[in-house]
């Protein structure tokens, strides 16, 4: 039985093929799963998908007609999957419920440091042999206040780094993390966190309740010189509202590894095409904004764990077992 893996990056392919070798046949393709590419899965009982795959009801219906009965998604988030339709069609869905939280936490800090110390602008200048310091002044983070929105595994890892930097720790979540409290975190309501934090980092999943968690009202509540970082899901921020505030000259820095309309853009080369996303085109023109293409998870350690979990999900499915990663169990 051959498994078809969609959206496989060049660095990811050898890790997948090595892990599956001798256990399951797998064919890796670069194309992402969309309504247009779904028909190529015909004849494959099992497929594997990436974080930006389109697993809407329409796509799931196409997959079911083609004989697919199991989807192993190589990510933690599953907001892109219509689970109700999958269950109705009898398609088993599995995800990766855990991988290195340090990969994302460390990258969130990379974004924060980069926008604070104007690293991208400085690098561009030195490439042109312009060694002036004008406009490159940053701020010490020690003694300043960081607001961590979501204090699960990734939020905790982010908090530990903040603690090491000597920052004041504020947290907001549905439940307190004892490990963060032990580090000195004080849990407050969202309004206080937004109004008093010098740096705000988002580490919550994208759910109906968290869609546009940071909207126009929340952005206006933040300090004018705050730094905002999002390495979780693009839909947590109302991007149009963010652009509106940036046009007013607000915020010292914004670091975004995710974008709410990234599907069909991120992980692809669009450099030779006309830019049709006006919001993204405007966003990347602001000098204090740094946008990266959903790479926070992309370390050897994290991808290795994702591949291992995906292999386990496939193996358990074949053996008729289920594990904690199964969102829609095998019928």
Automatic annotation (TrEMBL):
Give the PROSITE patterns listed for this entry: D_2_HYDROXYACID_DH_1 (PS00065), D_2_HYDROXYACID_DH_3 (PS00671)
User: Which keywords does this Swiss-Prot/TrEMBL entry list?
Assistant: NAD, Oxidoreductase
What region holds the D-isomer specific 2-hydroxyacid dehydrogenase catalytic domain? Answer: 8-325
Q: Give the matching InterPro entries.
A: D-isomer_2_OHA_DH_cat_dom, D-isomer_DH_CS, D-isomer_DH_CS1, D-isomer_DH_NAD-bd, D-LDH-like, NAD(P)-bd_dom_sf
Q: What is this protein called?
A: 2-hydroxyacid dehydrogenase
Residues of the D-isomer specific 2-hydroxyacid dehydrogenase NAD-binding domain = 110-296
Q: What is the lineage of its organism?
A: Bacteria, Bacillati, Actinomycetota, Actinomycetes, Kitasatosporales
Q: Which family does it belong to?
A: Belongs to the D-isomer specific 2-hydroxyacid dehydrogenase family.
Q: Which CDD domains match?
A: LDH_like_2 (cd12183)
Which PANTHER family does the entry mention? 2-HYDROXYACID DEHYDROGENASE HOMOLOG 1-RELATED (PTHR43026:SF1)
Give the range the annotation lists for the signal sequence: none
């Amino acid at each position: 039985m051959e498994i078809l893996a969609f959206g496989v990056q060049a660095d990811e392919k050898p890790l997948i093929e090595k892990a599956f070798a001798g256990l399951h046949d797998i064919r890796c393709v670069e194309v992402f799963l969309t309504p247009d590419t779904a028909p190529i899965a015909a004849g494959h009982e099992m497929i594997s998908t990436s974080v930006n795959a389109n697993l809407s009801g329409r796509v799931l219906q196409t997959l079911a007609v083609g004989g697919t009965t199991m989807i192993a998604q190589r990510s933690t988030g599953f907001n892109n999957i219509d689970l109700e339709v999958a269950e109705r069609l009898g398609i088993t869905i599995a995800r990766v419920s855990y991988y290195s939280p340090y990969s994302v936490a460390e990258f969130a800090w990379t974004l924060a440091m980069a926008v604070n110390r104007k690293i991208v602008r400085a690098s561009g200048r030195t490439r042109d042999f312009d060694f002036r310091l004008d406009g490159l002044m940053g701020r010490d983070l020690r003694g300043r206040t960081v607001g961590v929105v979501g204090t699960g595994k990734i939020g905790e890892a982010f908090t530990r780094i903040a603690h090491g930097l000597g920052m004041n720790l504020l947290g907001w979540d549905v439940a307190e993390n004892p490990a963060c409290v032990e580090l000195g975190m004080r849990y407050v309501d969202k309004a206080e966190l937004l109004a008093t934090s010098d740096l705000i980092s988002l580490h919550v999943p994208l759910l109906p309740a968290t869609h546009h968690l940071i909207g126009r009202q929340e952005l206006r509540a933040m300090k004018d010189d705050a730094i905002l970082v999002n390495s979780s899901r693009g839909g947590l921020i109302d991007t149009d509202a963010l652009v509106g505030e940036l046009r007013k000259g607000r915020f010292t820095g914004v670091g975004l590894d995710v974008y709410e309309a990234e599907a069909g853009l991120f992980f692809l080369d669009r450099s030779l095409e006309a830019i049709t996303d006006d919001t993204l085109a405007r966003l990347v023109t602001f000098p204090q904004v740094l946008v990266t293409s959903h790479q926070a998870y992309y370390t050897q350690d994290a991808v290795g764990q994702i591949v291992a979990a995906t292999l386990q999900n496939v193996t358990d499915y074949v053996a008729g077992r289920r594990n904690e990663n199964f969102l829609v169990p095998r019928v």
